[in-house]
Amino acid sequence: MLQAKPKIAVVTIFYGQITSQNCFVGSTPERLFARDNRLLFTEALAGTAPVSDNPSENNERANWLLNDEKNLNENWLVVEDISQNISHLVEQITVDDVALKPLRKVQHLIRKMQAKVDRTLYGCRFAESDPSNGCSVRLTATTSEESLG
Length: 149
Known about the structure:
Low-confidence stretches: 1-9, 125-131, 133-138, 144-149
Order of helices and strands: EEEEHHEEEEE
Mean pLDDT: 76
Structural class: alpha+beta
Oligomer: single chain
Radius of gyration: 18 Å
Distance between the termini: 52 Å
């Protein structure tokens, strides 16, 4: 008897802290954020088209993706969500123009974002959120080295 294999998406979450002022957090295929002193880097990754072995077909799909209103709006919603979630930590947020992030099987719309942290933050913590809203973790900041304990 054959058993169906469950279709479980495997996601890798990674974190690296170089110093108390330099760190990065990511979840494949996107980087959640990177920090370099007072600069915070993140990206809005949403809007997807398949990639094939045919370069001409991939160019057509890329052009479609870069001009498709639904995918552009979806990507902008992610920009707005990220902006809302980090607004209490930063003085300003800069959003780059939309571009493509090609991967092996798909290509995504990406908008890189940069922000200047409004005060010295020594680190971050992940706290559980209410899973009923679709979010299982929330990033919170620590404002002193003692609070990292």
